Amino acid sequence: MRVFTTILLKILGFFVLLQIAVRIIKRFYAFSPPASMGFLLDSDFRKRLQPPDKLIKRSGIKEGMHILEVGCGSGAFTICAARTSGIKGEVYALDIQPRMLMQLKKKLSRPENRDIKNIKLVEGDAHKLPFNDNSFDVVYTVTVLQELPDQNRALKEMKRVLKPGGVLAVSEFLPDPDYPLKSTTIRLGEEAGFFLDKVEGNLWNYTVRFKAQKSM
């Protein structure tokens, strides 16, 4: 029992030190997770801790919707969003890193995913989204917002491409080195002109949902 406790404390200590180190580095250098981490971001272990079906439901995604995922990475949540929106819906998976998009493209070529036809891969910058105004019913991000150098500008771009009354869903995950408190996420959204709709989840794993305009 003592050996197990010692090992657990060492793992916890390493995790805390890693969090501190990454946060210090990011104060001086803004960077996204490298494409080489795609396998970890899309791992079964991560999905057990942050289940895609639960997150997609909390994001307000429903059948027939037009959806934008900002910072899709290797597609840990994209597949679930596509299946939820169905054949009448569309999911635009946007990432700034071509190698991440290549990993998602490879994932879509697997036999179990070949029936999915409603995902469009887009290489682009969250600060200047390559879409027309009022294009989407839902825009969602998962552990991405805090990685963006200019969060306010990116949020205003997300607001621009949302339809009137559209939903912005921001999900965060405590193990992520950029993890912010719920209050921080709410403040950023409201400063960008969004209206708070709902907060779901817990300290470990939460989603803040905003509306592009105040509900009537």
TrEMBL record:
One example of a Gene Ontology biological process annotation: methylation
Entries under Gene3D superfamilies matching the protein: Vaccinia Virus protein VP39
Enzyme class per UniProt: transferase
Presence of the UniProt keyword Ion transport in the record: no
GO molecular function: demethylmenaquinone methyltransferase activity; S-adenosylmethionine-dependent methyltransferase activity
EC number(s) on file: 2.1.1.163
Keywords: Methyltransferase, Transferase
Protein's name according to its UniProt entry: 2-heptaprenyl-1,4-naphthoquinone methyltransferase
Organism placement in taxonomy: Archaea, Methanobacteriati, Methanobacteriota, Stenosarchaea group, Methanomicrobia
